[in-house]
């Protein structure tokens, strides 16, 4: 039976931070817009308080979550136990995107490991915490984090990195503003 929690307590914090992957869901306000779900990993999430989490947003082929955060802030994070006791935890809340170079980014970056290709930090004010059984989630064994993203990001010069971000991260697939690169 699922449960709703008042906040992220120590046990929930331990569960959340021990997961190797989590999923982020967001959507634009437009009914014609695309709902987005993205997997995240590489030790990029930190619980900052009982109602606050943040994660590193790494450069990629799209900019959906950041664009949705800027437009409306609605976000859900889902953590599934792929090892051990079955469980799913969801964090619902309001996201704020802090682009690299902004005051918000500077205030939070010390909480995270240094990962090449970091384009922003997504900070979430958590408004609802719940769990469910997770009985349908398969058991899987973690082998290692993939190394492609950090390795590739290290090969890019600052100029090439900026050009790639401008090319694929200036707007979402629904035409919402993405990274501010002007």
Description of the molecule:
It is a single chain. Helices cover 24% and strands 32% of the residues. With 182 residues, the chain is an alpha+beta fold. The termini are far apart. The protein has 5 helices and 8 strands; from the N terminus they run βαββββαββαβαα. Strands 1, 2, 3, 4, 5, 6, 7 and 8 form an 8-stranded antiparallel beta sheet that branches. The chain has one domain (3-134, 144-169): Electron Transport, Fmn-binding Protein, Chain A (Pnp Oxidase, Chain A, Roll). 23% of the residues are buried. It has helices at residues 10-18, 64-71, 103-108, 148-155, 158-169, and strands at residues 3-5, 22-26, 36-40, 45-49, 52-58, 74-80, 88-99, 118-132.
- Termini Cα gap: 50 Å
Q: Give the C-level CATH assignment.
A: Mainly Beta
Say what the CATH topology is.
Pnp Oxidase, Chain A
Order of helices and strands: EHEEEEHEEHEHH
Strands, count: 8
Largest sheet: number of strands, sense, barrel closure:
8 strands, antiparallel
- Report the average pLDDT across residues: 91
- CATH architecture assignment: Roll
Q: Which range does the strand content fall in?
A: 25-35%
- Number of distinct helices: 5
Q: How would you classify the quaternary structure? A: single chain
CATH superfamily: Electron Transport, Fmn-binding Protein, Chain A
Helical content (DSSP H or I, runs of 4+): 10-25%
Rg over CA atoms, rounded to whole Å, is 16 Å
How many distinct domains?
Answer: 1
Q: Which structural class should the secondary elements be placed in?
A: alpha+beta
């Amino acid at each position: 039976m699922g449960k709703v929690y008042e906040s992220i307590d120590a046990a929930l914090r331990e569960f959340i931070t021990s997961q190797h992957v989590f999923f982020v869901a967001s959507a634009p306000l437009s009914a014609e817009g695309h709902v987005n779900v993205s997997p995240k990993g590489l030790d990029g999430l930190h619980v900052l308080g009982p109602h606050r989490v943040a994660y590193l947003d790494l450069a990629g082929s799209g900019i959906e979550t950041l664009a949705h955060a800027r437009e409306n802030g609605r976000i859900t994070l889902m953590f599934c136990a792929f090892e051990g006791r079955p469980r799913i935890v969801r964090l619902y809340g309001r996201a704020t995107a802090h682009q690299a170079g902004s005051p918000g980014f500077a205030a939070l970056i010390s909480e995270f490991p240094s990962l090449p290709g970091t384009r922003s930090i997504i900070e979430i004010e958590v408004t609802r915490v719940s769990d469910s059984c997770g009985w349908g989630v398969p058991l899987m064994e973690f082998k290692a984090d993939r190394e492609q993203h950090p390795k590739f990001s290290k090969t890019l010069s600052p100029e090439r990195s900026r050009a790639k971000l401008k090319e694929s991260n200036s707007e979402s697939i629904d035409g919402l503003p993405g990274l501010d690169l002007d």
